[in-house]
Amino acid sequence: MTPESFEFAPEPVQIRLVRSWVRERLAAGNVPAGIAADVVLITGELATNAVRHAAGPLRALLVCADAAVWIGVEDAGGSAWFDPVVPDAAPAGTGLTLVAACSDRRGYFHRPDGGKTVWAEIPLAS
């Protein structure tokens, strides 16, 4: 599968559209259902965080390679992203903990235009 992207507005209603877009692309790429479910979950968390905390416009990125699926969300804001350690008893704010649990690698990078891309990589085989 070649790299693909999907622009979306920084509005909560758009999260459903982003997840649907990713689900359709993964099905077309024959990604196994269990892995696809993790990728869709991660996409929803990254997109939700972008809508809540970042500046628009927003773009979801998807790359399926032989060994892994890479998902990213771009925003126009340059604020830092962090990989949290959230206590088990935390009542909220555990979305990035789900991303960490479902991915092998994750992080962010600043882009030359001042924005950032938050990403996660999910292996296709265990």
UniProtKB/TrEMBL annotation:
Domain of life: Bacteria
InterPro entries: Anti-sigma-factor_SerPK, HATPase_C_sf, HATPase_dom
Keywords noted in UniProt: Kinase, Serine/threonine-protein kinase, Transferase
GO molecular function: protein serine/threonine kinase activity
Record domain Histidine kinase/HSP90-like ATPase: where: 8-120
SUPFAM superfamilies: ATPase domain of HSP90 chaperone/DNA topoisomerase II/histidine kinase
Record flagged with keyword Kinase: yes
Protein name: Anti-sigma regulatory factor (Ser/Thr protein kinase)
Species the sequence originates in: Amycolatopsis pretoriensis
